[in-house]
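RECORD TYPE: inverse folding
INPUT: structure tokens
STRUCTURE:
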């Protein structure tokens, strides 16, 4: 079944929307195919504000309604404890909330933007997708990340070159309890680096209260040049700030 055939067979679609490249293209494609489609974004402590801002902007641009639900992820002890199955447990709770919102609006189908490059063994949250019967039409039809970016660019979508972004909880080592304070510190640090011109980076917690910056190799010179400004921002919250000399992407 092609993507168009999927849309032909599913005329009313709810999209679990993150504001990222893949779910943005899925939303656009469903709208273009003539589906009655609505986007659903779940705002928890794990999503930075810019992701919601991008989601609102994109949905408005293509004329698709967006419902924003809220979730207190940290009220679930199994998530806040940050065990090895934290991603699966979080995804399960989030998808249940998405289904609740979608069904209340009369949508019988919930889709997400998982693509063909997403390997199930690397993404424990994908087990939750299967259990909750969430469909992944891009993955099912073999759409790779590169192809989705190319198609997005051809369609003039501003998300085509957006960097991939994992939730803030991934910055905290497994086994270290997640708190609102830690998440806020990490979000502030990453926002500071974003405004200083960095892209595709991570600021990870080094327990008990250190920050480790991971960058692309081509940005190493820039971080040295902006060292003082970075320290001024991050040392407000962290006792130490270090640079991982292994570049992101292994380069």
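DESIGNED SEQUENCE:
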């Amino acid at each position: 079944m092609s993507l168009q055939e999927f849309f032909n067979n599913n005329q009313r679609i709810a999209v679990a929307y993150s504001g990222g490249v893949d779910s943005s293209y899925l939303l656009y494609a469903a709208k273009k195919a003539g589906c009655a489609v609505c986007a659903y974004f779940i705002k928890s402590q794990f999503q930075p504000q810019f992701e919601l801002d991008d989601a609102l902007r994109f949905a408005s641009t293509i004329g698709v309604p967006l419902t924003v639900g809220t979730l207190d992820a940290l009220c679930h002890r199994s998530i806040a404890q940050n065990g090895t199955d934290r991603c699966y447990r979080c995804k399960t709770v989030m998808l249940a909330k998405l289904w609740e919102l979608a069904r209340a609006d009369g949508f019988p189908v919930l889709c997400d933007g998982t693509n063909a490059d997403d390997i199930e063994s690397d993404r424990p949250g994908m087990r939750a997708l299967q259990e909750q019967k969430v469909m992944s039409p891009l993955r099912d039809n073999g759409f790779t990340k590169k192809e989705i970016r190319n198609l997005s660019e051809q369609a003039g979508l501003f998300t085509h070159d957006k960097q991939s972004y994992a939730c803030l909880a991934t910055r905290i080592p497994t086994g270290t309890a997640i708190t609102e304070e830690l998440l806020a510190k990490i979000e502030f640090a990453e926002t500071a680096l974003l405004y200083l011109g960095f892209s595709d980076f991570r600021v990870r917690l080094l327990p008990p209260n250190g920050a480790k910056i991971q960058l692309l190799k081509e940005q190493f010179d820039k971080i040295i040049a902006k060292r003082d400004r970075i320290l001024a921002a991050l040392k407000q919250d962290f006792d130490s700030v270090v640079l991982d000399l292994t570049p992101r992407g292994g380069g």
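NOTES: The beta strands are 12-16, 36-43, 66-70, 110-111, 202-206, 210-214, 240-243.
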